[in-house]
């Protein structure tokens, strides 16, 4: 079967391109144990582009089946290939595909790199195509799965960078505000940071209103792009709870 041949070829190419230095340093970027080959990102991208020429000719069901098989392998580089492919396929996305993407995140995503790689563009582009579906992120933000909670924020990163959906940005930040998970804190802090590119005063006002309950990690990310005076004001510790 063609799809099986493609998977075998991808994995053979990944094994052939293992970089000993990359393999040695990869794990240090993660607190949890991750599965990886040790292939540099630029090489993974080149391989993804190479195979997309073949994959793009297949029907949607087969493409999604290939993507799920790569996701299920648990290898981070294989997830990166999926994250490269699917944004190229956005014209074929249907509203019901969000259920598939949600299931994939809930089932297969288990580190920040997979989460961000998949959500920034695949889910982000989906939300741009079907903006009425953005409200589903409220449900993700309340999930028991830390990666769905992070996904609720990082799926809005690209639109937020362009100045879109500020109300949703603050709504998601509000739902995640007191989250104790460091990965979630970094996710919504990053979202606020990107929103500050075009809505600086609104983000600053939000941070100042919530700084007494916002974890230090999220706060630091949120004000990273602001002028020094605003960062200093926002980061000024007034209550010991910031030490968490």
Features:
244 residues, mainly alpha, 0% strand, globular, disordered C terminus
Description:
Helices cover 66% and strands 0% of the residues. The chain is built from 15 helices and no strands. The protein has helices at residues 2-16, 20-26, 41-55, 60-72, 76-85, 97-108, 112-129, 136-141, 146-154, 157-161, 166-176, 182-195, 200-210, 216-222, 228-235. Helix 3 (41-55) crosses helix 5. The protein is globular, with a radius of gyration of 19 Å. The termini are far apart.
Instruction: Give the class from helix and strand content and strand pairing.
Output: mainly alpha
Please bin the fraction of helical residues: 55-70%
What is the alpha-carbon Rg in Å?
A: 19 Å
Number of helices: 15
Tally of extended strands? Answer: 0
The stretches of 5 or more residues where confidence is low (pLDDT under 50) are 238-244
Main sheet: strands, sense, barrel:
none
Arithmetic mean pLDDT:
94
Q: Termini, distance in Å?
A: 53 Å
Report the principal-axis shape. Answer: globular
Order of helices and strands: HHHHHHHHHHHHHHH
Beta fraction: under 5%
């Amino acid at each position: 079967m063609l799809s099986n041949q493609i998977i075998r070829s991808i994995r053979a190419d990944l094994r052939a391109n293992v970089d000993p230095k990359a393999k040695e340093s990869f794990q240090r970027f993660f607190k949890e144990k991750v599965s990886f080959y040790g292939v540099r990102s630029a090489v993974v991208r080149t391989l993804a582009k190479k195979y997309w020429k073949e994959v793009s000719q297949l029907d949607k069901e087969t493409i999604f089946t290939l993507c799920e098989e790569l996701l299920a392998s648990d290898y981070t580089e294989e997830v990166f290939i999926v994250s490269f492919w699917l944004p190229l396929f956005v014209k074929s996305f249907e509203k019901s595909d969000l259920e598939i993407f949600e299931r994939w995140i809930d089932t297969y995503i288990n580190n920040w790199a997979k989460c961000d790689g998949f959500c920034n563009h695949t889910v982000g582009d989906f939300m741009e195509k079907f903006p009425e579906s953005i409200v589903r992120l409220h449900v993700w933000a309340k999930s028991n799965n830390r990666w769905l909670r992070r996904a609720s924020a990082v799926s809005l990163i690209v639109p937020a960078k362009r100045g879109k959906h500020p109300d949703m940005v603050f709504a998601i930040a509000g739902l995640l505000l007191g989250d104790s998970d460091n990965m979630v804190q970094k996710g919504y802090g990053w979202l606020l940071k990107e929103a500050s590119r075009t809505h600086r005063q609104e983000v600053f006002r939000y941070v100042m209103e919530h700084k007494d309950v916002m974890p230090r990690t999220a706060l630091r990310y949120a004000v990273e792009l602001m002028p020094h005076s605003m960062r200093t004001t926002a980061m000024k510790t007034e209550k010991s709870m910031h030490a968490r």
